[in-house]
Amino acid sequence: MEFHSLPGRIVYGDGTTELACVDFPQVEQGIVDINHTFVDESLRGQGMAGQLMQRCADQLRKDGLRAKTGCSYAEKWFEKHPEYSDVLAEK
């Protein structure tokens, strides 16, 4: 199992089966909406959602994109990680 970065999406799985993902489609020029996170029951409680969010935030920072947080988990994650506040789009 490994992480796969796709346009607007990061997936954890084996290429066929997705066990976890975060979706962040572009909603306007230079801005994405982190609107969905999913972690399979078999991985819950192991920090997988946090790993997805960190990879997502790192990817957005690298690509020079900013994020809105349509997903409640993403909103809470950014509140707990102020070191990534530069990735957030102004509300």
TrEMBL record:
InterPro entries named in the record: Acyl_CoA_acyltransferase, Gcn5-rel_NAT, GNAT_YJDJ
CDD domains, per the entry: NAT_SF
Alphabetized SUPFAM superfamilies for the sequence: Acyl-CoA N-acyltransferases (Nat) (SSF55729)
Domain (N-acetyltransferase): residue spans on this chain: 2-89
Superkingdom: Bacteria
Short name of any one Pfam family annotated for the protein: Acetyltransf_CG
Record-given protein name: N-acetyltransferase
Species in which this protein is naturally found: Candidatus Allofournierella pullistercoris
